[in-house]
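ingest -> validate -> predict -> emit
validate: passed (alphabet ok, no gaps, 265 aa)
predict: started
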Amino acid sequence: MDRILAFGVHPDDVEYAAGGTLALLRDKGFEIHVASLAGGEVGHPTLPAQQIRERRLAENQRAAALVGGTFHFGGCHDLEVQYDCEHRRRAVRIMREVDPLIVLTLPPMDYLLDHEEGSKLVRNAAYIASVPNYDCGVPTKPTGRFPYLYYWNASRCRDIFGRPLPLHMAVNVTSVIELKRKMIECHESQFEWLKHHNKWEDFGAVTLQDSREQGKLIGADYAEGFIQHLGNGHPTDNILKTLLGDLCVEFPDRPVIPENRRKFV
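emit:
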């Protein structure tokens, strides 16, 4: 059984953006792994940092369990994620521990710098986890491959300038939307925080609304959008399309890497 790693920064990132796709891949027989670099320590209006960290990590474990997933915590701190040596080591440890075939992660441009720095960290870890001489600070075995790497859509489906990201595809998650809803509802403390901080009465409703907006792109009730990393090293065929068939709808402007280039990648 091969492995999928959905790697976010905060305990609700994965479920909000890619929970439905994880459910579909679970149904295809894949082993699911969910990771969060930080513990969401600042995400509550009243609870102290250590208490909210414990609560949010427990919520993340429950959400991952709904798709039979294993949860991994990077040990980093909310609003302090940055692209430096210590954070790189922590990201690589998780990447080596899982050795995934497919990695889903945050987009390079999003509303919060924690997300953008996290995207760089996961992207880098996906590449350098296979480098034997890279020391991530603990005894680990290098991975033996470059994983397929995908970035999910930005929060509220737009970048910091209000523009849609250049998505390559969207996955129809209508058949598993109730499971996605249950996954996001595990994050009760995040509901409390976003009601206070963002003035959102119902984070679950926001999640479903954003999935509906992405569904309109492909004529589905609900969807999750992705951009595939097509840089040197990583596989460039669209394995999500291969695995999910008609549920993964590619957009016409998705780049295609010519065969005579793929063999050198």
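Residues 49-65 form the longest helix (17 residues).
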